Amino acid sequence: MKKIDLHIHTTYSDGMLTPVQIVDTALDCNLDVIALTDHDNVLSYEIAQNYIKDKNIELEVVPGVEINTIYKGWEVHILGYFMDKNNSDFIKMLEFQQKARIEQTHKIIELLAKKQGIKIKFEDVQKLVAPQGSIGRPHIARAITSSGGSANVMEAYAKFINNNSDVYVERKTVSPHDAVEIISEAGGIPVFAHPIDVEIADDLTKDLVNYGLRGIEAYHRKHSPAAVEHFSTLAEKFGLIVTGGSDFHAPSLNHGTILMGKNFVPEWVYDKLIIEKKRIDLANQ
């Protein structure tokens, strides 16, 4: 029976392990299939694939991405699998998202200095992510902590990174509808990530289906058995596939354990994903 994890982050976004370390960790966890789903970029996939080929490693790596969007005040994340990374609209979407991340970071840095007297440089944040990777709130929080502006990262989040902070600046993003449509048109499989985080998930799912949504991440470490059942039923209602993963970012700081692949994801989830990709490719011929 295959062991799979279709939601993993690397140092190219807010993960703490490099793509190579992710591959090695996946092997240590006896995983057979993983997906690299960094926020708003796809840079880690090629690095992982080259390492696998060089070392003749038996591990299936699915090309993926997680697009961060904001809709009606909610953070809505859209996963994409198997899209054509060279599709022009897909590239433009990633470029837009990256530019918005940089602009947001600069504005927050300015407000930190002006309102809180905390002086950090953009370079202090940038060095915490792999080259050309996606800068985000976790990196800003770490930079604040390193500068002495907070006792730890959690305190930095609580004081400066949350949406109610006087130094917080909302990032401009594409809409979830645009993300779904662009991933779909790039031959990929757009999936609603960890819908438990979005109060309007049920209604939004119905809406996104009209834009090409093909799946729901029913299996996630935040999802209780009841939530898994609810979102699996929702997927069935709209003719969607289900996916799942740990949403791995780093080993647990509290327990020193690796959470990659820890939440149960049935083997048929991967099988359905492959079938859906074949259906899309056939339809696009």
Brief overview, please?
The chain is α/β, with parallel strands linked by helices and 285 residues long.
Outline the structure in words:
With 285 residues, the chain is of the alpha/beta class. The chain has a domain at 4-84 and 187-283: Metal-dependent hydrolases (TIM Barrel, Alpha-Beta Barrel). The chain contains 10 helices and 7 strands. The chain has a 7-stranded mixed beta sheet.
In one word, what is the shape?
A: globular
Mean pLDDT across residues? 94
The H-and-E topology, N to C, reads as: EHEHEEHHHHHEHEHEH
How big is the Rg? Answer: 19 Å
List keywords for this structure.
285 residues; alpha/beta; TIM Barrel; seven-stranded mixed sheet; 10 helices; 7 strands; 44% helix; 15% strand
Architecture blueprint of SSEs:
Blueprint: E1 4-8, H1 19-28, E2 33-36, H2 43-55, E3 60-71, E4 74-81, H3 88-116, H4 122-126, H5 137-146, H6 153-161, H7 176-185, E5 189-192, H8 201-209, E6 215-220, H9 225-237, E7 241-245, H10 267-283
Parallel strand pairs: 1-2, 2-3, 5-6, 6-7
Antiparallel strand pairs: 3-4, 4-5
Helix pairs in contact: 1-2, 5-6
